[in-house]
Amino acid sequence: MALLIQNGEIVTADSRYFADIFVEDETITRIGSNLELPPGTEVVDARGCLICPGFINPHVHIYLPFMATFAKDTHETASIAALMGGTTTFIEMCCPSRLDHALDSYYLWKEKAHNHSACDYAFHMGVTRWNDETESQLRRIVADGTSSFKVFLAYKNFFGIEDTELFQTLRLGKEMGVITAAHCENAEIVSRLQTYLLSVGKTGPEWHEPSRPETVEAAGTHRFAAFVELTKAQGYVVHLSCAPALEEAARAKQRGVRLAIESVLPHFLLDNSLTEQPGVEAMKYVMSPPLRDRRNHRSLWNGLRSGIIDTVGTDHCPFDLAQKGLGELAFTDIPNGIPGIEERVSLMYTRGVVTGQIDIHRFVDALSTRAAKLFGLFPRKGTIAPGSDADLVVFDPTYRGIISVKTQHTQNDYNAFEEFGVKGRASVVTVRGKVQVRDGVFVGDRFRGRFLAREPIGDTHGE
Ligand SMILES: [Zn+2]
Predict the structure, then answer these.
(1) At what angle do helices 163-176 and 134-143 cross, to 10 degrees?
(2) Could you tell me the distance, in angstroms and rounded to a whole number, from the CA of residue 319 to the centre of ligand 1?
(3) Which candidate, 112, 129, 120, places its Cα nearest to that of 91?
(4) Can you spell out the DSSP letters for 352-401?
(5) pLDDT of res. 318
(6) If you measure from the C-alpha of residue 60 to the centroid of ligand 1, how many angstroms do you get, rounded to a whole number?
(7) How far is the CA of 4 from the centre of ligand 1 (A)?
(8) Residues 6+ apart with CB under 8 A from 432
(9) For 192-208, how does the pLDDT look when each residue is reduced to its tens digit (9 = 90+)?
(10) Using CA of residue 349, residue 354, residue 359, residue 361, what is the dihedral sign?
(11) How far apart are the CA of 311 and the centre of ligand 1, in A?
(12) If you measure from the C-alpha of residue 129 to the centroid of ligand 1, how many angstroms do you get, rounded to a whole number?
């Protein structure tokens, strides 16, 4: 099976030019003009459009038992939503609780996704405790192709780990060349602030942010950076939400700590005033770290433009209104999460590229290439070159639309970006050479997605 995408303008993290792309089987084999076509070649006309490498979302939750309930998506619904938005690969957090067995959990997550995803996928392995078995289990998981860890400096007694466990995880990561991602807050302080706020009757969703303030995230980021520095490991801060945390992370980077930074869609576009609305309306917007005061938006956009913020993910995590309502009496019972797997590319293009906050190359870099490089997928994913997987997005910058729960593919009964306008969308999307989305409609194979085994990419030299 051969595919030609013609008349489009190719845009990568560092180049922009007009050329046609020829795909054989699953791989890009030629890029140029007047390419010779075998009979039966499928042709996609990309006139007037940009052709970007398939977008990569480095931070999503799909299967997730959390806060006494389960996130709403299946791999089928989330992967179709991802593809509709131009995302051809996601990296899901495998999140066992502290009581769970790491290897069993890993196989459970893998089984949930296996033959159930329309796009390609990988995992970050959550390390939520460290005991005698942990090291050998993690070695097996890395050998299986899951070469990134995730730790939580938050969620006391559930996902959260102790200092010694963090240290051991980073030491193993360093030895194996595996990058460790971290949710940076401080479980102890958050727990005490929550208890205090509830005890004085501050129980509504507007108290979620004050229970995990910017200072706590900055402190968590500082602590993680110090551990990464001392172990000479490679770290990745997930969903950095505010200026004080960014300052901590940037300082660490400047002194040579190998720390990459991710921010997520909601923190660029939404703010904590949304949690001051009545009833469940406010609960829709509860995630952690929380939505912040909007004065932080400028810092995040500046950080993204300069590249200090490396990647843009989503922390996609859908809970419906009935689930959100579990927190009616106490904000600490609201399941944390805001979905966004489908909206990330269009909204970051609309609010970032169209407005001139970031250029098109930084956009492609932050939403695709940089994640591919950090997580061992490059150049198979994250670029357009002969030999790369033919994951391609024909992006139509002239499209105009409005986001609505009525048209979304994520399995949920609200959309946090309801009525946001978009300028531009993925109109044709391929996964390893197969057209999965055409004219904004899913037309493909619901179970085409494959697990991506990744080699560790880190420097394993030195102490
Ligand atoms: Zn997350």
Answers:
(1) 40
(2) 13
(3) 120
(4) IITTTSS-HHHHHIIIIIHHHHHTT-TTTSSS--TTSB--EEEEEEEEEE
(5) 94
(6) 6
(7) 37
(8) 26, 27, 120, 389, 390, 391, 448, 450
(9) 999 999 999 999 999 99
(10) positive
(11) 14
(12) 17
Q: Which domain holds residue 273?
A: 54-374
What is the tens place of the pLDDT at every residue in 270-319? 999 999 999 999 999 999 999 999 999 999 999 999 999 999 999 999 99
How many domains is the chain built from?
Answer: 1
> Rounded to the nearest whole angstrom, what is the distance from the C-alpha of residue 316 to the centroid of ligand 1?
7
> pLDDT confidence of 118, banded at 50, 70, 90?
very high
For residue 336, report the distance from its CA to the centre of ligand 1, in Å: 9
Token pair 């929550």: residue: 194
The CATH number assigned to the domain holding 207 equals 3.20.20.140
- What are 425's strand-pairing partners? 396
Cα separation, 278 vs 436, in Å, equals 40
In the numeric block, the tokens 């958050």 are attached to 190
Task: Output the CA 154–ligand 1 centroid distance in Å.
Answer: 11
Asked if the structure places residue 4 within a domain, the reply is no
What DSSP string describes 317-360? ----HHHHGGGSS-GGGSPP----TTTHHHHHIIIIITTTSS-H
Task: Note the pTM of the prediction, 2 decimals.
Answer: 0.97
Query: Does residue 410 fall inside a structural domain?
Result: no
Q: Is residue 33 part of a domain?
A: no
Q: How many A from CA of 239 to the centre of ligand 1? A: 7
Q: Cβ(8)–Cβ(26) under 8 Å?
A: no
CA–centroid distance, residue 93 to ligand 1 (Å): 7
Stretch 14-20: mean pLDDT, rounded? 98
Strands 20-24 and 2-6: antiparallel
Supply 354's token pair: 């169209």
For residue 233, what are its two tokens? 């490991």
Give me ligand 1 centre to Cα 461, in Å.
Answer: 30
Cα(50) to ligand 1 centroid in Å equals 30
Q: Is the pLDDT of residue 157 over 90?
A: no
Grade residue 462 by pLDDT with cuts at 50, 70 and 90: low
How far away, in angstroms, is 361 Cα from ligand 1 center? 26
Distance 152 CA to ligand 1 centre (A): 9
Distance 419 CA to ligand 1 centre (A): 25
Residue 428 lies in a domain: no
